[in-house]
Amino acid sequence: MGFKMGIVGLPNVGKSTLFNALTKTAAAQAANFPFCTIEPNVGEVGVPDARLDKLAAIAGSKQIIPTRMTFVDIAGLVKGASQGEGLGNQFLANIRETDAIAHVLRCFEDGDVTHVDGRVNPVEDAETIETELMLADIESIEKRLQNIVRKVRGGDKEAVQQERLLRQALAMLEDGKPARLIEVDEEDAKAWKMLQLLTTKPVLYVCNVGEAEAAEGNAHSAKVAEMAAAQGNSHVIISAQIEEEISQLEDDEAEMFLTEMGLEEAGLDRLIRAGYELLHLETYFTVGPKEARAWTIKTGTAGPQAAGVIHGDFERGFIRAETIAYDDYIAHNGEQGSKEAGKMRAEGKSYIVKDGDVLHFLFNT
Ligand SMILES: Nc1ncnc2c1ncn2[C@@H]1O[C@H](COP(=O)(O)OP(=O)(O)OP(=O)(O)O)[C@@H](O)[C@H]1O
Ligand SMILES: [Mg+2]
User: Per UniProt, which keywords does this protein have (predicted)?
Assistant: First the structure.
């Protein structure tokens, strides 16, 4: 499946620093000048999940394999990006290909690090970026409306549906609001997603604060929190610089460092999990002596499609899924104990997999 989160924001706010921390690499060049990044950097990140370690410990699994999510570090956007300012159109196309947006906002004060507008004001910065995304959507909608005129006149059903949705989005955007505020019916959901509008993508604000503020945030991040709440969006507080330092440390060193900073867990873990929630994703597990592994599904996925994440044959030849809820697996100390307690269920094709299910698929090919 591969869910992709785009790291978006003004130039020089810490996007590449964050990307490097997430991917534990120095793959992206991060430096104190705007437009340091031009070509997007793409990296896969393991989704942290303490449950997986507990399952592996019980089953004595040799290997632990977390499920993965993709992050894309995208070039900085500036005012006028939708008109091509600062290579804007190319960068907007990079955003179009993502499933959700991690919007990095500069919340740290540091006179040595240039801000493109010469002041620190994350709420205005967020508006600048959102405005560009809205303008880009308006432009692409107008183009598309022109392109389908003939088909609509000819009564093409798909085109008629598209036109209706495009006009709905356009009205919202012209009212100065992002298209994500539109609630679409189930029958329109697929066509709506196919429009790939930038402002329909769910947003998570990432408040990039100074080193000493990583635990509590600061006055800037408090304002972002207020804005996010008013919009119904989520936010996380992180210091990209510290996270990058932590990501270079061994696990036990990192833990000591976190305690010193007054942090319970790395901000990155919170960020990745928030992204996972934003995308309405859930996890199921497969557990055995060889490996304990986490798999990602969309909330509401049925047994065969969940099996298909592992392999297409599993989906096509799906018979049933032996299912143990995570809590039962832990409470009864593994598969055997759960079975004896009557907690292993045989679930068929219509079963909707639940977050935390430990599954064993039976299939024929
Ligand atoms: N929390 C922070 N506190 C202080 N400095 C930071 C913080 N986060 C990032 N920086 C610094 O800000 C500068 C810009 O960082 P980075 O290159 O990651 O930004 P960017 O958003 O990727 O920029 P561009 O859009 O130009 O690619 C770097 O010098 C980096 O060390
Ligand atoms: Mg960069």
Answer: ATP-binding, Magnesium, Metal-binding, Nucleotide-binding
Is residue 76 within 6 Å of ligand 1 at its C-beta? yes
For a substitution probing ligand 1, which of 8, 10, 12, 23 has the most ligand atoms within 8 Å of its CB?
Answer: 12
Helix H, strand E, coil C: the string for the chain is CCCEEEEECCCCCCHHHHHHHHHCCCCCCCCCCCCCCCCCEEEEEECCCHHHHHHHHHHCCCEEECCEEEEEECCCCCCCHHHCHHHHHHHHHHHHCCCEEEEEEECCCCCCCCCCCCCCCHHHHHHHHHHHHHHHHHHHHHHHHHHHHHHHHCCCHHHHHHHHHHHHHHHHHHCCCCHHHCCCCHHHHHHHHHCCCHHHCCEEEEEECCHHHCCCCCHHHHHHHHHHHHHCCEEEEECHHHHHHHHCCCHHHHHHHHHHHCCCCCHHHHHHHHHHHHCCEEEEEEECCCEEEEEEEECCCEHHHHHHCCCHHHHHCEEEEEEECHHHHHHCCCHHHHHHCCCCEEECCCCECCCCCEEEEEECC
Please tell me which residue, 76 or 108, carries the higher pLDDT value: 108
The full set of domain ranges for the chain reads 4-278, 300-363
**pLDDT tens, residue by residue, 241-270:** 999 998 888 888 988 888 888 887 788 888
Domain boundaries 4-278, corresponding CATH code? 3.40.50.300
Give the ligand at the shortest distance from the Cα of 30.
1
Looking at the CA of 15, name the nearest ligand. 1
pTM of the model: 0.90
Q: Per-residue pLDDT tens for 45-66?
A: 999 899 999 999 999 999 999 9
Domain 300-363 sits in CATH 3.30.390.10? no
- Check if 36 has its Cβ closer than 6 Å to any atom of ligand 1: yes
Residue nearest to atom 29 of ligand 1 (CA): 32
Q: Whose CA is nearest to atom 7 of ligand 1?
A: 241
Whether 222 shows a pLDDT value over 90: the answer reads: yes
